[in-house]
Amino acid sequence: MDVQLRHSGYWGPVTATLDWCEANYQFSHHVAEISNTFSNLFFICISLYGAHLSTKESLPTRYLVGFAGCALVGLGSFLFHATLLYEAQLADELPMVYVTSLFLAILLESEPGFGFKSSYSKSLVAATVVFDTVFTASYLVYRNPVYHQCVFAALMVATVFREGYLLTWFEASKTIPDKKKAVITEVLRTGAFLFLFGFIIWNLDNIFCDSWTRVKLAVGWPAAFFMEGHAWWHIFTGLGTFYLNQGVTCALIRFPPTLSVKDDHHRYRLVYWHGLPLVLRAGKPDRED
To answer: Which residues contact 118 (CB under 8 A, 6 or more apart)?
Structure first.
């Protein structure tokens, strides 16, 4: 981007190892990147809605923690883009790894029940904590954002493969009717597509930043606020994360037997509300518009 669009503001010089295509402090002395900052409100709100739903439906605590962790990622990203400070960057990037490793651990822990009483469950928790600790320490020393992006991507790929294994090759999945498998596969596929679509937009925004910035200047604001690719990454990953969270929940409690080793699938059902998949307790009425 043209250096003339890199203004200074309330938070001082950029200390983060990343700076995005959006102009810095263009419209506010206190907010470095307006669109990239406030687009996180959607991410935060949809994550809090998932946490509220988990509490309302008395779902296992692990799913509440997952949604709450996603809201924390959104808050960290809000602070990062508002300040472009290194400390705020860590508040965004580290929880991304923590939450993704949590979801992977949830998928790997496929024994009956939701406690962590078995040796395997306890070992899995310990391994997750050790992994997150080692990554944090190494990232503080090796401050290359590509390192973070590779670790995050590897965790996401591992999560997708684990979900595919549970649905396709896990012994219990053989008892699941194809129609029920198709339902959960569609939820997971939609979440993955939203994630990938947001990632493509974000990278196109990076690759063609200079030319795209000229287009934004020609279009003018406020219309150009809706042309920030990284802001759309926040929107699509917010939706994608919600779908994937619900897919993980379905994979472990909706269908028999795990895909129901965790709980009796008859106690839960999946409904859609304004296009969002919701896991509800059986016997409760559907949501109304």
So the answer is: 111
